[in-house]
Each structure stands twice: as C-alpha cells, then as structure tokens.
Design goal:
The protein contains no helices and nine strands. It has 94 residues and is an all-beta fold.
Length: 94
C-alpha cells in the first residue's frame, strides 16, 4: 500500500503549512471518531521539510471508508479548516 499524500491543506495557521501545502513528514488523522488532523498546531513559525509534501502516516477514524487497518487507502487527501482546527475533508463514512 502506498502512503496517501496531503494534496492540499487550507489551514494556513498550522506550523507545517506553507502556501497551502503541508510539509510535515507525515500526519495523523483522527481521535477515533472525528477526522481531525492530530498533527495540526498553531504557530507563526513554519516548519517541516519544504521540499517534501506530507503523507498520511496513520488514520484513527475507523468509520471512514478509506481506513484500512488504520492506514489511509485514498490516493490523496485534502485538509481544511473546521472551527479552529484542521480536518480531513476526504473523510467519508463507510
């Protein structure tokens, strides 16, 4: 299985976001019930590896149709803003 990539991230306040692209090595989705980006945190400084686009390292949302043994089987995902945090916008119930 190939790691799903984060094709777009609209959460500009995130420390890993530069130009709508996530530069963490990998992100984790979910708290078990909600498709929140657990890697998200607010910072005025931006980190990560600028030459790399993040992948989805783990997904803890078992109710998502893309979740296969806690791995994301989607080719790519989009992360968007929900309230004051990032959410996986590719999430889809089984």
């Amino acid at each position: 299985m190939k790691m799903a990539n984060v094709s777009e991230c609209a959460v500009s306040e995130c420390a890993y976001n530069t130009g709508k692209s996530c530069h963490a090595i990998a992100i984790t989705i979910g708290d078990g019930a909600h498709p929140m980006c657990d890697t998200f945190f607010k910072s005025s400084a931006h980190g990560g590896i600028k030459s790399q686009t993040a992948g989805v390292g783990a997904c803890k949302v078992a109710s998502c149709r893309h979740n296969n043994d806690f791995e994301c089987s989607s080719e790519s995902i989009k992360v968007g803003i929900c309230e004051d945090h990032g959410d996986c916008m590719t999430f889809s119930m089984r």
